[in-house]
Structure formats: C-alpha cells, structure tokens
C-alpha cells in the first residue's frame, strides 16, 4: 500500500466505496455516473479514513469535499468518536462541510485567533496519521498539486495527537 | 531530535545560526535584536536545511521568509545544487523571495496550470524530506498553527523526489 498520495486525484467514482461502507447493497443500483471505478488518491484517502473503528480526530483548515464529508458522517453514525477542529475564517464559506457535520451531531471546535489554523491532518484510531498539504476541498482534490502522507509510526502520530488535544482544549468555547 | 515541528514558532533570533553557516564570526558583533537565542521550530527548520551538502529540492506554494531565503542563498553559494519549484500566482506577490533567489542565480520553475502548486516540501541531499502544512512565510511561521515533518525513510523520501522531478520536467519552459 502506498504511504504517500499525490493529487490532483485521477477522476474516479467513489459511490460504491461509500455505499459499501454504509452497509448498502451496491450491486442492485450501481452509480449511473460515467467516472471509472478505479483506485485513485481520493479513493485511497477515503479507505484509510473508513478504516476507523473507535476514534477520528480531524484538524483541517478547509473542509468542503462532499465525499469526505459523507465518509466522516458515516463513521459518526457507526459509533466512531469523531472530533473536528477547523479554522473560523474558512468555516462559513459556501460549500463548507462543517455546518453539515455539526447538524449531524459531530463535535466541532474552531479557532478564535488571528493566525490561521492551517493544519491539514487526521488521526485514525490513535494509530494512523494522515497529513500533508491537502485541504479537504474538491478544488484541491481535483485541480491542485498536493501530497498526503499516511504514517503509523508513533514517533509521528503521538506529537500530532498531542497537538490535537492542545488545540481542542484551547478552542473550548466554555 | 524532534521529527515533528509545530508552529507558530517561539520567537527567537536566528542571526547567529545564519552567520555561522555563512562562515562569519558571530562573537565579534552579536545581533542587537532583543529576541532570545533559543531553539525554536524556525531555528530547527533552518538547521535541517543548512545540513545540505550536495542538493536541495524545494517545492513551495509560497516563499517569503527572509531567514529561509538567506539560508537557501547561502547553500547555493556553498555549492549545493538548489532547485526551486513554486506557484505562479503567489510568486509575484510583495515580499516573495523568488525574485531574490533567481537574481542570485538559483534555478526556479513555476507552474502554468489552473490549479495551485500547493506542495510545501523540500528534500535535503536526496535523504531528508521536510514537508507539512507550512508555507515558508513570516505570517505562517509567526502566527499560524502549522506542522512540519522531518522524515529520512526512503519509503517517503523517494516518492517526493519523483514528484519533484515530474514537476520539474513539466514546468520546463523550453
Ligand atoms: Zn459514480
Ligand atoms: Zn537578532
């Protein structure tokens, strides 16, 4: 399995992947879109996220990709403890997934700072770090030169988990 | 040595570090600025870069930090083969280091694409990958929540080197 994903992602249909993860039968009604059902950087990123069984920490400057938003909601419904930290400036822009995630009952906190909360990482089950240059937006996935690393070495995962907890506490609105 | 650097960086004076790397005596005329001479994420990032002996590939969306610009020029003067890839949209903005690097004789290529060249990585001596969310700007270094990973595992370094070479060829203006 590749440990580095590059973008722009090859266009591919991710419906079967998401439907399967949601426990739906996909053979009965295959997606009518013309995109090939092939592995792509986006499908690999989705698969890594969908491997979560217990917890998912997400720390993202920008989050507007509908596919990634569906994956996160699906994990939440499956009982995975999802926590999201994001940047206040971007959160309110059109297409942001943050409102939908909150509406679904997912915990979201945002910065109250001058600087940007510019991280783009996630941690799956406290063991897999997913990080890089990629914001989770359709623009970035389809058009930009981007990278995502998938790392399971505790030497890297632990500092990012600690950073997440620091930010999570700091952005506590109470 | 920490393998992950977080930002904003603690404010610190990097003059002695840069002067020493340039082969200047620093004891004779210490920097008059009031910043403490302590280790910081910025000084650690500089030290990793300044460890280059043969080659430095840089692939950056935005590059405006004067300290990091000086470090790169210093390596070029020291005979390190420096190549820079950057994004056309950002390159012309005020404060960009790209013009200064070109003026110093460093090879720079930029995209001619619609999407952003959004990578933020460097490879030192084909063995050390420096990558993360951080653009090399003073704003990001001083004010943003950012991360930088330092990785020497070939499983990660090699794909980034290959990506650099792909982009380098693709952006060849000839
Ligand atoms: Zn489809
Ligand atoms: Zn100083």
Give a short synopsis of this structure:
Chain A has 174 residues and is an alpha/beta fold.
Largest interface by Cβ-Cβ < 8 Å: A-B, 36 and 36 residues
What is the residue-mean pLDDT of chain A, rounded to a whole number? 93
Strand content of chain A: 15-25%
Largest sheet of chain A: 7 strands, mixed
N-to-C span of chain A: 42 Å
The rounded Rg of chain A comes to 16 Å
How would you explain this protein's 3D organization?
The structure is a homodimer of 174-residue chains. In chain A, 36% of the residues lie in helices and 21% in strands. Chain A is of the alpha/beta class and 174 residues long. A 7-stranded mixed β-sheet of chain A has the order 1-7-6-5-2-3-4, sandwiched between helices. In chain A, a hairpin with a 3-residue loop joins strand 5 (120-124) and strand 6. Chain A is globular and about 50 Å long. The relative contact order of chain A is 0.20. At the A-B interface, helix 6, strand 7 and helix 7 of A face helix 6, strand 7 and helix 7 of B. Bound molecules: zinc ion (ZN) (2 copies). Residues 13, 15, 31, 33, 35 of chain A line the site of one zinc ion (ZN).
Which terms summarize this structure?
homodimer; 174 residues; alpha/beta; 7-stranded mixed beta sheet; 7 helices; globular; binds zinc ion
Topology:
2 copies of one chain form a homodimer.
Chain A: E1 4-7, H1 15-21, H2 41-50, E2 55-60, H3 66-77, E3 81-86, H4 88-91, H5 98-103, E4 107-110, E5 120-124, E6 128-132, H6 138-143, E7 146-151, H7 154-170
Parallel strand pairs in A: 2-3, 3-4
Antiparallel strand pairs in A: 1-7, 2-5, 5-6, 6-7
Bound molecules: zinc ion (2 copies).
One zinc ion (ZN) is lined by residues 13, 15, 31, 33, 35 of chain A.
């Amino acid at each position: 399995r590749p440990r580095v994903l590059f973008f722009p992602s090859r266009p591919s249909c991710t419906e079967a992947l998401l439907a399967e993860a949601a426990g739906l039968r996909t053979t009965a009604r295959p997606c009518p879109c013309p995109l090939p059902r092939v592995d792509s950087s986006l499908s690999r990123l989705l698969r890594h996220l969908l491997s979560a069984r217990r917890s998912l920490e997400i720390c993202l400057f920008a989050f507007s990709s509908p596919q990634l938003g569906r994956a996160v909601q699906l994990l939440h419904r499956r009982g995975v403890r999802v926590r999201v930290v994001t940047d206040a400036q971007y959160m309110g822009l059109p297409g942001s997934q943050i409102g939908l995630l909150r509406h679904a009952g997912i915990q979201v906190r945002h910065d109250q700072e001058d600087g940007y909360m510019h991280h783009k990482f996630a941690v799956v089950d406290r063991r897999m770090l997913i990080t890089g240059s990629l914001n989770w937006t359709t623009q970035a996935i389809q058009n930009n030169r981007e990278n995502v690393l998938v790392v399971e070495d505790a030497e890297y995962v632990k500092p990012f988990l600690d950073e997440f907890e620091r930010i999570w506490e700091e952005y506590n609105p109470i």
